[in-house]
Fold each of these.
Amino acid sequence: MFLVTPQRWRDPAWPPRLTGTLAFLLLLLPAGYLTEFNPAVFLDARSLRASRQCLGTFFPPAHSREFLQLLGSSAWKTVAIATVGLFFALLLAAPLSLLANRALSRSRLGTGRMGFLPACVRAGIRWVLSILRSIPELVWALLFVRAVGLGDTAGVMAIALTYSGMIGKVFLEIYEAQDVKAAEALLIHGSGRLTAFLYGTLPSCLPELLSYTVYRWECAMRSSVILGFVGAGGLGQQMDMSMRMLAGGEVLSFLLVFIGLVWVADRISKGLRLWID
């Protein structure tokens, strides 16, 4: 009979794995203590009783004619907020990402180093993109609700600002990950920066740009619902009102429609990605 020696079963990488696991636990335990995370609270008798009472109000889902009309209009508003917000985000992100692209700098041709002023301009634009994406859309929505009042405008502007920073950053990374030789050759032979981008950079990175834009539209759909809870319109605002009135059937109907919207957005996103590829 063939016997396997103990060395055959020994994992040579166990010391770093054990060290990594212990380090993770040493970080996780204090973090759990600081957040006062206690999973046992979900099994408490009062919590279970409150959960049963809350879920009991969800059935049956609201389906009156007037409510379904409100539900349909709120759903369309959610789609509109996400789409218009993403459109304005692209209007801001596209030029900023082009201006920050180092590969389109004329001063770096030959020497490989940009001039002082172009380098400062590009660094400033990168800081603008960082600031825009570092502030969550929920915070922007709270500010715009104070500035322009409750409604869809606050949601559109919140998505536009935060997503412009995200899209601009990713677009910039996609541009600079491409082979810059074609764009540099066009610049050396006297073409403009926009021409060099359109014919030297864009053809190779267009599928990635479109794929990421579609993904961001899908994310904007989810964000538009969350923003409604602070008064930025759409399904979230109506759902918040129903939750305040303890109308569980209406909340369930809103949730079902929201799940349907996310599923449709995911199908559209998947179809567009297959078409792009």
Amino acid sequence: KLPGLTQMAMQYMSLGSQDDLRQQLIDVVLRRACLAEPWPTDAEGFRQRCAEAKPRLGLLAQEICRLVGTVLTEWQAVQKKLPAFKAHTAAVQDIERQMTRLIGKRFVADTPFERLQHFPRYLKAIVMRLDKLRANPARDAQLLTEYTPLWTNYERRAGLLARQGITQPQVDQFRWLLEELRVQLFAQELRTPAPVSVKRLQKMWEGL
């Protein structure tokens, strides 16, 4: 039982089918219910893990569906708002690229759950950015100029690591700090879990 699945599937329609979404939701529920260390090492441990997980499935399904429903609702809000800002080409293109990175066909299953929990705030930050954009486009352009070199550095490194088949946790972490930096720059009223700034991230990048 996945609460709100029909409504979510309608919002998700441009990305994939209801079955695609259902399977991802089930994957995340099972992962959170069952796949935690220490791993079962024998048949008895496996049975015990299943028994412990079973009563938690319903609550986890509710929690995950509530989160994904909120993400899809916020995502739709941005999509509805964007066409009115076509005159602000650079900002709109930047936001469209950001949304493509965050919300793809497999965003539910492929985004680490601890990151997915922040998606509603990231999307709210985009709405707030758009609200401010019309009043002060020069400020938005300046902030984007400060942000872009950091993203470009990350993108180059991530592309290189992907081609080499290497995972580097610090680079992955940096990617999400860049998402937090967007909140700090464009919608600082929403707050970030830890302090971030262009200077802090520049220094961190030099360390990497």
Amino acid sequence: IGRHKILEAYTKLYNTVKCGQTAVGAALALAREHRIKPGEIAEIRIGLAKRDATSQTRNPSSGRPKTRDTANHSVRFCVAAALVDGELNSDQFEPDKLESPGILGLVDRTAVHWDESLDPHWPFANPASVTLRTTSGEELSERQIFPAGHPNNPLPDQELERKFRQLTRKI
């Protein structure tokens, strides 16, 4: 019949929307590679393809989500929570995290914009560019087209097992 549809399956590594996968992945990669702590971040700029940028900037209240569902749909919140905690899983959406001064302070220093250079990749991918400006003035950037878990960048078995165990640890 042709190509098997299972080979097109998308496994989200992080507990966030599709465009958040690349933004969180890029932000965590920068923080890990350069050993940046959240207090050293003066500003975060997240570039997204036009449709994703429009949906992320449409609702100004996304910077102060009140529920787990609105939080995991806010790329600004997800990137901030991931940088503060060093990961993004279901724990980052507990009620105390939605009110965390550390996370919300970083959300306040985060902006989403349309990065036109990402449009050619959409909708096959939900690419993102992330630029962190440190308190010392250094600017570091990372761009991701295909996040871990995308059919063009499948999760290794070890990472898939880690995600499964994290999701089922309380059961």
Amino acid sequence: ESGIRGPSAVFGHEVSHAWTMNATGPASNMLREGWATFSEALVLRDEHGPDVEADFWNRLRNGYILGSEGRLSILGNPDNGGVHYSKGAWIFHMFDLMLGDSAFDRGMREYIEQQAEARPAGYAELIAAMSHAAGRDLTSFAMPWFSEKKIPDVRADVVGRRVVVSQVQDTPPFDLPLELALVTARGTTVRRSIHLRTRADT
């Protein structure tokens, strides 16, 4: 019932718990439930296509905005289920989008192996595994998503012949890789990859 009642893949969700059930530390609930919810999106995409998957992600986003935004952080509320399902799944989703499926899979396998060997497997170990797979340190990117109660509020303004991209949330700036698309007066679309690490960049 896509668009009417949020799509779900309960079996895929529950089976996925087997991979991260031994997560440790203050974000262990997010590492279990966020991963299982992310996996649920993959099952929906494979079984029902990208439109149903997009509907699923939209439902998670709306649930987060209405329930947790500005109120709860993952590290500040280690036992809270809501923010761990919604925001937690988005953290895995962002890692996948940034790294691509192949590197993301390597990072997840490295992280899961630590659990299989009964070693510490918390959020720091997840970030380290993803950093190893990416070939660069992702700590500054990842940590605000765990520690802050708000997500970035990004604005883009055209000022003369320049585009000024800024973060206006009342928290420290996030480390954000972004894709910017500007449609000119002639109808041409100009795309740029930018990396916003400060309050504003041009």
